[in-house]
Design a protein that fits this description.
The protein is an alpha+beta fold and 307 residues long. Helices cover 30% and strands 29% of the residues. It has nine helices and twelve strands. The protein has a twelve-stranded mixed beta sheet with strand order 1-2-3-4-5-12-6-11-10-9-8-7, with helices on both faces. The longest helix is centred in the N-terminal third of the chain and has 18 residues. The protein is globular. The relative contact order is 0.15.
């Protein structure tokens, strides 16, 4: 006679169009635990902002419970008119190694109609293995680059003739900035498709500071480009959050000047390090940032189904 095997709590996955405040809090707590263990967030800033605020077009939330405890989360965003839906997922560090990641990944595949892109932030071995198990192939590499900050080490910005720079005024500049952002990033759906709601989400965040959001205008007051900086106070990091230049002003040196203005602002705030994200295959941008003293710190990987 042998002892009976211990009962395994049932696993369930619930798919929702919106989370309650209690569910959002539970997901954020799970993400915080995972970030402490992994060294970076498993879900992007955009994904975290989409946890609250009710339903959003094309966004679904997958909650994985074991015995009534939330141990896994995935988000699926199907808003790109061309590309496959994009997913992110995380399993609580204390519940890994039990097939929960594979269960969430399989659920994402089913929810997307087996047409899926998935981020693996940090590119950890376990995430690479899961992608292989799910039959996904490497599609994109996003580099996080960093450099030390010192006002004396950042060249004085040289703006094109007739261009002046001021800071963003919330409410007044929203529409024009959204239009400029859409033009500057027409080739980049994630950034170029930002809406007023997306901008409002970011303006409501504790880190938002218009004094670090720089707008470049010509003599007629037309917005030509911008550099939005972000401060990660707890980590002592200043971020080149987004630099954009409208097509008509590209090739004039405005992007380089705006980058220098933002870096000098972050350095003057006493931050020791600057960071930014750039696609690894954007060789021109990577080269520019390397000349500005940035080097690769870590890499996020995106996998996708074969299409």
């Amino acid at each position: 006679m042998t002892d009976a095997a211990p009962a395994v709590p049932p696993r369930s996955i619930q798919t929702l169009d919106a989370l309650t405040e209690e569910q959002a809090d539970a997901v954020l707590a799970l993400l915080a635990d995972a970030a402490r263990a992994d060294g970076q967030q498993a879900v992007s800033e955009q994904g975290r902002l989409q946890l609250r605020g009710g339903p959003r077009d094309g966004v679904r939330h997958l909650l994985l419970d074991v015995g009534g405890e939330l141990v896994g989360y995935a988000q699926l965003e199907d808003t790109d008119p061309v590309e496959a839906p994009a997913g992110e997922l995380v399993v609580h560090p204390g519940h890994r190694g039990h097939g929960h990641g594979r269960a969430l990944g399989t659920a994402l595949l089913a929810s997307s109609g087996k047409r899926l892109r998935v981020w693996a932030h940090g590119g950890h071995a376990a995430a690479r293995h899961l992608a292989q198990v799910l039959g996904l192939t490497l599609f994109r590499e996003l580099r996080q680059m960093r450099r030390p900050l010192s006002p004396d080490a950042i060249a004085e910005p040289a703006l094109p003739a007739g261009v002046t720079v001021r800071t963003f005024e919330p409410g007044q500049d929203d529409a024009e900035w959204l239009a400029a952002n859409a033009e500057a990033f027409a080739h980049h759906p994630e950034q170029g498709s930002l809406t007023q709601r997306d901008l409002d989400d970011r303006k409501a965040e504790p880190w938002f500071d218009p004094s670090g959001f720089f707008l470049a205008e010509n003599a007629a007051g037309e917005l030509l480009g911008f550099h939005w900086t972000k401060v990660h106070a707890a980590e002592g990091l200043g971020e080149v959050y987004v630099v954009g230049v409208r097509p008509a002003a590209q090739g004039t040196g405005l992007g380089k000047a705006l980058t220098a203005i933002g870096l000098r602002h972050l350095a003057a705030a006493g931050l020791p390090t600057a960071m930014l994200y750039v696609d690894a295959d954007n060789k021109a941008a990577v080269s520019v940032y390397e000349r500005l003293g940035f080097s690769t710190h870590e890499t996020d990987l995106m996998y996708r189904t074969e299409t």
